[in-house]
């Protein structure tokens, strides 16, 4: 309440100076119990030859007309409340209260959504402008920028939409809530919502990589040997993963079994391709995967997509070659000398 009273008093000082063309040093006091306002002018008492600001200073003679025992250096306060000030004060107070309420509401929304960064929320499309989708939640409006949308998806007013809260920024116009559907984190959260074993901490999502609208890879591990992490995410007859695929408009999802063995992890990450062998090099930072010729295009993927996603998923730079290519690089075997 004290902050609001202070804001009202400061605004009334500005209103007084504007409406009564005053340059005086004034303060306005609000009596909280009665709701009345008092305008007090303050003048510093100075010697006559030191007077340089009559709006804020009194000579000793002028001061003693107001206060007979006034002394040099003293500040004289006078009640200068104009008879018409009540109307101005009431109007100004309403404006300040309205402004402060809006600021308080903005700060409340800011704090609430800052706490929800990293969550998936469901909202309603309010409007679409220049590719930006504005989503309405119960207390706020958020924006889904074009680059954060899944390629090819189209939204219309009143559509229900799920989004990942990516960022919340404070701006002069209020909190700006930025959403995404293109981040791999969005897919991770969808699995967390759909898979009870993830919610309970039995199955853990280790990492993810994604080309929005095309393919996403998610690596999972289980803290319980009796629970299959891949099967948990897929669900009986694909029941769990199907809803997520539908939410992503048919995007392909590879559930990858995590392994602490880098070679096994790379092998799993290159799914759906079948890998013959993997050799780890550069102290675990690179890998050479050998595949059959018929599996090469699948392992690399269209425009290198599969191997790029596998590299990002594992954090290991993956090179893919066929056995024939390895033999060609190595060259023909050394010829054994003939024996007599």
Description:
- Strand 13 and strand 14 form a beta hairpin.
- The mean pLDDT is 89.
- This protein has 340 residues and is of the alpha/beta class.
- It has four domains: 2-112, 2-Layer Sandwich (N Utilization Substance Protein A, Chain:P, domain 4), CATH 3.30.1480; 116-178, OB fold (Dihydrolipoamide Acetyltransferase, E2P); 183-258, 2-Layer Sandwich (GMP Synthetase, Chain A, domain 3), CATH 3.30.300; 262-334, K homology (KH) domain (GMP Synthetase, Chain A, domain 3).
- The protein contains eleven helices and 15 strands.
- The radius of gyration is 36 Å and the shape is elongated.
- The protein has helices at residues 2-19, 60-66, 85-114, 184-194, 196-199, 229-234, 239-247, 262-269, 296-300, 305-314, 323-330, and strands at 25-31, 36-46, 57-59, 75-79, 120-129, 132-136, 141-144, 160-171, 174-180, 203-211, 215-222, 252-257, 277-281, 286-291, 317-322.
- Helices cover 34% and strands 31% of the residues.
- The strands form four sheets. Strands 5-6-7-9-8 form a five-stranded mixed barrel. Strands 1, 2, 3 and 4 form a four-stranded mixed beta sheet that branches. Strands 10-11-12 form a three-stranded mixed beta sheet, sandwiched between helices.
Which key terms come to mind for this protein?
single chain; 340 residues; alpha/beta; N Utilization Substance Protein A, Chain:P, domain 4; OB fold (Dihydrolipoamide Acetyltransferase, E2P); GMP Synthetase, Chain A, domain 3; 4 domains; 4-stranded mixed β-sheet; 11 helices
